[in-house]
Amino acid sequence: MAKEKADLGRRVVAGLIDGLIGAVLSAAIPFWGIGHLLGGAYILTKDAIMLELLKDPAWKGRSVGKRVMRLKVVGPKGSDIDIGLSAKRNWPLALGHLLSFIVVLMPIGTIPWSTWSLIGSVSSVIGIIEIILMLTDAQGRRLGDRLADTRVIEEAQEEHSACRKL
Fold first, then answer.
1. Which residues are CB-contacts of 68 (< 8 A; sequence separation ≥ 6)?
2. Assigned domain for 166 exists
3. pTM
């Protein structure tokens, strides 16, 4: 049976893995900010996109980072999540990527460095709020979890064994 609150250390490592994937996608295609759009799209849909792409039930509610760290996102009353619920849950985390995409579309020379600083600051403040909420909430729910009525749980041992067999 899954624990009520997922281990914060495992959640942080999963978040770092997913953040690295988003950053690599953002940097991979610098042309017209398409990389920022791809990175933001991954962060928005990370908890459901692999299931959609691979059609493998082992990816239900799992991003790459969550799969590695044996964590899972569940919806209201433990239900599975879909792309829409993943986007609702993760928009605070994807905001920096998506704002960067919009700013990159503007003509060169019209964007002051202060705009980039503001985007970085807003993203950092949201990240700090998310971490504080994970630490202080009884179920470890961050802002995105509250907005989408989701939570992160640890994978049950028998569920992990079943996923490995698939």
1. 13, 14, 17
2. no
3. 0.80
